[in-house]
Task: inverse folding
């Protein structure tokens, strides 16, 4: 077999030079895919303006967005980090349950509706962020609020509901 | 001269078909069953397909909301490497050469690798 290490291994390829001092530092988000996907609609709810601003800057920078849109990019990261921090502070249990469920179920949201309902209730109560799916047809119930999920691993009702269709959550029970 | 005539009372009937009892239901029952099965399938497909459509919308928006975040992180990394390359070039050559006849940011094709890492 090969007697010498391949030259293009990860250790060698990473250029570890830090960012120059004239660019303000920002802490990276540091979350993996499942927590980010779990929190994505809340990030979208709070940070939509920053996100759009950044993408607009990139689109209008004429190919130089990597260097010219660093400021907008820092705002995007700080805003998303604030959402993750707030969720971690106030709804850590529900958040952890949901993203671990996503991690176990191949990021299929429809397999984790029970945990999602708990998390949405907590986040709306504590942070005022609401999950809405843009451009969804108005006449239909949004798919994340449907009690039965056709494609779920365990089809049927995912959570219990009041008469008006609002979910009965453990979060509200614990709070009451 | 007398001709051959049929026997009195006519010929007996010739048995040209087999005398087997009819099995199973009538064809219309099978047809109706098939139509019923297909209708049920189409009914399920209609609702499943609509739900799958909405799930797709949910998934893509979930990704769209975190896309700028990931892009910003990647851009910062690219900018960091870009400035590092420029500083290295300044140090080694004492000048900055423009490789491309363009102002655009070009992702470098070749990465900088320290020469002595694998030798030590």
Result:
């Amino acid at each position: 077999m090969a007697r010498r290490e391949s030259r293009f291994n990860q250790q060698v390829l990473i250029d570890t030079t830090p960012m120059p001092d004239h660019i303000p530092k920002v802490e990276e988000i540091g979350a993996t895919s499942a927590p980010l996907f779990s929190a994505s609609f809340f990030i979208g709810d709070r940070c939509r303006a920053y996100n759009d601003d950044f993408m607009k800057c990139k689109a209008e920078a004429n190919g130089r967005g990597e260097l010219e849109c660093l400021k907008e990019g820092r705002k995007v990261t700080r805003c998303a980090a604030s959402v993750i921090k707030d969720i971690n502070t106030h709804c850590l249990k529900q958040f952890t349950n949901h993203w671990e469920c996503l991690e176990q179920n191949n990021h299929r949201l429809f397999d984790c509706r029970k945990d999602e309902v708990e998390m949405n209730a907590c986040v709306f109560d504590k942070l005022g962020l609401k999950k809405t799916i843009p451009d969804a047809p108005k006449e239909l119930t949004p798919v994340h609020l449907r009690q039965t999920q056709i494609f779920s691993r365990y089809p049927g009702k995912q959570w219990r509901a009041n008469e008006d269709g609002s979910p009965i959550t453990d979060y509200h029970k614990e709070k009451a | 001269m007398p001709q051959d005539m049929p026997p009195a009372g006519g010929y007996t009937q010739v048995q040209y078909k087999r005398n087997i009892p009819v099995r199973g239901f009538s064809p219309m029952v099978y047809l109706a069953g098939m139509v019923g099965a297909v209708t049920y399938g189409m009914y399920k497909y209609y609702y499943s397909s609509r739900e799958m459509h909405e799930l797709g919308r949910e998934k893509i928006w979930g990704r769209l909301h975190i896309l700028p975040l990931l892009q910003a992180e990647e851009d910062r990394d690219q900018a960091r490497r870009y400035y590092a390359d420029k500083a290295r070039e300044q140090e080694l050559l004492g000048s900055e050469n423009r490789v491309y006849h363009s102002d655009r940011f070009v992702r470098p094709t070749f990465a900088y690798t320290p020469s002595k890492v694998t030798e030590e």
Remarks:
- DSSP finds one helix and no strands in chain B.
